[in-house]
Specification:
- The chain is 0% helix and 61% strand.
- The strands form two sheets. The protein has a nine-stranded antiparallel sheet, with no helix packed on it. Strands 5-6 form a two-stranded antiparallel sheet.
- A hairpin with an 8-residue loop joins strand 8 and strand 9.
- The protein starts with a strand and ends with a strand.
């Protein structure tokens, strides 16, 4: 496949490293032509967006919300490269599920899909006045990947976490419960995702 891609990021934050107020938006747009031996050749388009908002909520409480969506536009029977499709799950997606484990299951094989929609809501606060850099958090994530909007079957993960607001960005340690698989999972990440 050959494609032309554009990716832009817009940030309006009180701090680029440790944000507590503002938002970020990352958007991508692609158009390309694929050539697949078992499938027809043709044109495809791809759109992706991720909006994350940060908001102080009263005294020492902070909220964070994320909405992420993407879709590949292509006629039936035209192959699209795996790198242009979507999967979800993991630290900055739907916690409780392993990295890229949410996709399209066909004949017992997990593959990427043409449509993705995920969202997250998180509430956090410092653990104590004496430890202002150490925060506790609760969160709920939901999302799925499919080959059409109608086929999305949302998976939910929820849990608790600890945040250390270091000089290089937040270090996050989360424990999340996956509602559909009925399993818990630890997630660790550094920094914020744009």
């Amino acid at each position: 496949a050959t494609s032309c891609n554009y990716h832009g990021v817009w940030r309006q934050l009180d701090s680029p490293i440790l944000p507590t107020e503002g938002f970020t938006f990352a958007g991508q747009a692609s158009i390309g032509r694929s050539h697949g031996s078992p499938a027809a050749s043709g044109v495809f388009g791809r759109a992706y967006g991720r909006l994350t908002g940060y908001l102080p909520l009263g005294r020492n409480w902070y909220g964070q919300a994320r909405l992420e969506s993407g879709q590949v536009f292509v006629k039936e029977g035209i192959a699209v490269p795996e790198t242009q499709l979507f999967r979800a799950g993991g630290d900055d997606s739907v916690r409780g599920y392993s990295y890229r484990s949410l996709g399209v299951l066909e004949n017992g094989v997990l593959s990427s899909g043409k449509v993705m929609l995920t969202s997250s809501v998180e509430l956090a606060r410092p653990v104590s006045v004496n430890l202002p850099a150490l925060w506790g958090a609760v969160f709920v994530d939901i999302g799925d990947v499919a080959n059409s909007l109608q086929a999305l079957d949302y998976k939910m993960g929820y849990g608790v976490g600890v945040r250390w607001r270091s000089h290089v960005g937040p270090l996050r340690l989360d424990w999340a419960w996956a509602r559909e698989t009925r399993q818990g999972r630890l997630h660790f990440s550094v920094g914020i995702a744009f």
